[in-house]
């Protein structure tokens, strides 16, 4: 998995979840980072505040 360091005081990876397709979601600097099952960084879901953690919602776990 590629190392994606953040800037000083940007936070560190914390909450981790995997979806049904094997994609990995991790809270980290600036938002939620997403990697595919092969370890390729797909992108980052940018959010206005540093997320401390993440989880799946709804009865079928379809909402991040």
Q: Could you please describe the fold and organization of this structure?
A:
By secondary structure, the protein is mainly beta. A four-stranded antiparallel β-sheet has the order 1-2-3-4, with no helix packed on it. Strand 1 and strand 2 form a beta hairpin.
- Sheet having the most strands: 4 strands, antiparallel
- Helical content (DSSP H or I, runs of 4+): under 10%
User: Beta fraction of the residues?
Assistant: 25-35%
End-to-end CA span: 22 Å
Order of helices and strands: EEEE
Mean pLDDT: 82
Neighbour order of strands in the largest sheet: 1-2-3-4
Overall shape: it is globular
> How many β strands by DSSP?
4
In DSSP terms (H or I, runs of 4 or more residues), the helix count works out at 0
Rg is 12 Å
Give unreliable regions as ranges.
none
Output the structural class. mainly beta
Question: What's the structural blueprint in terms of helices and strands?
Answer:
Elements: E1 16-18, E2 24-28, E3 31-35, E4 41-46
Defining traits:
mainly beta; four-stranded antiparallel β-sheet; 4 strands
How would you briefly describe this protein structure?
With 64 residues, the protein is mainly beta.
